[in-house]
Design goal:
By secondary structure, the protein is an alpha/beta fold. It has 2 domains: 26-125 and 232-255, 3-Layer(aba) Sandwich (Rossmann fold), CATH 3.40.50; 127-229, Rossmann fold (3-Layer(aba) Sandwich). 38% of the residues lie in helices and 18% in strands. The protein contains 11 helices and 10 strands. The chain has helices at residues 39-46, 66-70, 76-82, 97-103, 105-115, 124-134, 148-160, 176-181, 184-194, 215-222, 229-240; strands at residues 2-3, 9-10, 26-33, 51-58, 91-94, 120-123, 139-144, 164-170, 201-204, 226-228. The strands form 3 sheets. It has a 4-stranded parallel β-sheet with strand order 4-3-5-6, sandwiched between helices. Helix 10 links the parallel strand 9 (201-204) and strand 10 (226-228). Helix 3 packs across helix 5 and helix 6 packs across helix 11 (229-240). The model has no long low-confidence stretch (mean pLDDT 95).
Length: 264
């Protein structure tokens, strides 16, 4: 160290070694609700080495209805623009199942692209549809924490996408904090109660519930695929970012390459 004058330090000349950084394989951004108590920890459980997870949150009412979900779109572009714009994530996904359904995929993609034109836009239900199609699930049962007005919208959405919903049952909880307090063991029991012999698979719907950790337990009992919102979305985002890793512990879907996925 040398002092050029009393106040200025002049460093020696260095030649730092640079590489592609910690997230050298891909970067994925997620727009979460401020009330979501599960998604963030789920993503970091599933993330492969070399993949970056970047998260921002929308301020949302802790009262989940069709009306409050519609408001999420108001700040979607701004939220997308905040997610690591200097490193430009490969994919940015709006991480809310019910909000994706109520607002609509196309509108969400447009707003994400408005804020982050460099990224591939995604939303949670797009990932769910990707996973259902990849696993060739045509008939399914669905369990949710939602009010029945949201369950009705989800039933219509899945039906219009070409799936046969044999049953959809919701817990009629009102707040995201309540969603996150339902135990994983309850989701396992609920899924087993909902299962039908004719069902090709089971879907536990909502990014804010603690269902990921019991996916493989349920699959081992019922002998068919089980999807959760965070698992299906994360799998689809990885595949869209070119990450084909086969991960263990998170269900059958992670053994699939995702060749059926069509980019948005």
């Amino acid at each position: 160290m040398t002092l050029k004058n009393k106040n200025l330090i002049v460093s020696k000349k260095y030649y730092p070694e640079l590489d592609e950084g910690k997230h050298y394989r891909a970067r994925i951004g997620f727009i979460l609700m401020s009330t979501d108590l599960a998604s963030e920890s789920d993503f970091f459980k599933m993330v492969p080495e070399g993949v970056g997870i970047h998260i921002t949150r929308l301020k949302t009412d802790d009262f989940t209805t069709n009306e409050t979900l519609l408001r999420h779109i108001e700040h979607m572009a701004e939220a997308a623009a905040r997610i690591q714009p200097d490193t430009k994530p490969n994919v940015i996904s709006y991480s809310c199942t019910s909000g994706s359904i109520v607002i609509g995929e196309k509108k969400i993609f447009q707003e994400i692209k408005k804020g982050a034109p460099w990224t591939e836009p995604m939303c949670l239900v797009t990932g769910v549809v990707d996973a259902l199609q990849e696993l060739n699930i045509k008939k399914l049962v669905v369990g949710t924490p939602y009010l029945d007005e949201i369950n009705s919208a989800e039933f219509q959405f899945l039906t219009e996408k070409g799936f046969e919903v044999l049953d959809i049952q919701g817990l009629n909880l009102k707040t995201g904090v309540e969603f996150g307090r339902v135990t994983p063991n309850f989701w396992k029991k609920f899924a087993l109660q909902l299962d039908q012999k004719k069902a090709d698979g089971i879907f536990l719907s909502c990014g804010g519930i603690r269902s990921l950790e019991v996916v493989e337990e349920i699959e081992n009992i019922v002998g068919k695929p089980v999807l959760t919102s965070n698992q299906a979305q994360f799998w689809s985002c990885l595949r869209r970012a070119g990450i084909k890793d086969k991960l263990n512990g998170f269900g059958k879907i992670f053994q699939r390459d995702g060749d059926s996925i069509k980019k948005n």
